[in-house]
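Reviewers of the previous submission asked for a worked example of the structure-prediction workflow described in the proposal, so we include one complete record here. The input consisted solely of the amino acid sequence. No template or homolog information was supplied to the procedure at any stage.
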Amino acid sequence: MTDTKPPAADVQRIIDSAARLGVELTETETLDWLAAMTAAPSDSDVTIDASSGTFGHKVAMLDFSPKDLERFRRIGAIVEVLGEPGDSSVESALALSGSAAQSHIQAYPGDADFFQRLNIKADTREEACLRMAHLMRKKALDFARSSTYQFLEAKLGSYPFDCTHRGNAVRKGSPMSWTFDEVSEGILRLEHDGATHEFKWHEVALDPGWCKLDWVVVDEERGQLTNASNVIDVTWEGPDGEIVALDGYLDAFFQEVYLEAEDAEMFEKVTGFVSEDALDEYVERLEQEVQKYLTKSLNYGKAAKRMYNVFRLSGKHLEAAFVRQLFDEPATILYQVWSLITTLDNATQPGSSIPLSAVRDQADALVIDVIDALEGAEEVEIVKALLQLQRSLEHTGDVETRLERIDAAQTRVINVVNTFFKDRLTQMPTIKDYIDEIQSHTT
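From that input alone, the workflow returned the following structure tokens.
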């Protein structure tokens, strides 16, 4: 990151640009944030907040607010994979990631996204893989369902060839997706060239790939449903003290906020083995995602979130300051609405333990959110789509109609989100140039 302070005239220009768009961007807050971003580097990039007991990269901590911390800790108890009490061979550090970690600026975060570092001490890599597989499966089985949560799926291993899984075409190399029944049985069946191929949980774990667990959670205090996911970065610590990632890549730590200060020692031990080029690699991966959401899978909301992280980590602090303020605008609640439509669908799948009353409450809340955020034809169209969707979710017999209404509701919402972010992002010339450059090279 650069330590060059932006000229006052440049700061005023982005404040004026925001004002023309009706976006509130105060000079004092902007200058304070820019000062923190351009401060001289310290001995450590990690900051610990003693009052909340959280820690993370100093840039990530600037965007974190502890106001919902206890809620996230409650959800964390559901999603975190742990060893047996007193087992020192299994170490964990659980963090918030995504919009949940940026709660200071994202007034309307989407899902509750967690990231966990799970370090396993073992004599061999194979032993560490099998231990990880046992712990992930145990978590899924122990937290399968209740009135406040419903397990959805696990990701473990990679599809070995193009094939069909549960009637859906899947591509070679993409993460294997396991339902609860498949995790419970420990067997995943694929159709390929007219034959059925069986893959066992503990065998797939020897080449684990991307590890992830997903739930729907009921927030009883808020009367809100949330998709809660935990991406698990599993590492093996050998007898010689070397630490390696079981999936071949040890993740960097530029966007996580860790929930317990007592985990800092384990965190620092593991991240000591992160590549020296981690920042450049992380920004490069984010830019690949920006390109994806500006071209093949057009979604200016998702692109904006990733652009913000690219800008703030690559020295484009003025651009970051401008994008940062967009996430707090009332219209961005539609990004949460878009995400929660999928949550409603997940919560009403056959066999779900989530009470229908919670689904009704959530659907009603989404309608109110849309009414508060929009007006005119857009409001009418999205409210109509949500009401139709609500009726479909309560009567699960007609699967085709259900899927059509889910798609229709999400399409209407994402069109408004795309328009909101596109109109505002392209008002800042340097960001418009950045977007034009990406899109011109992929057309």
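The two ends are 31 Å apart (CA to CA). We consider this example representative of the routine output the project will generate in years two and three.
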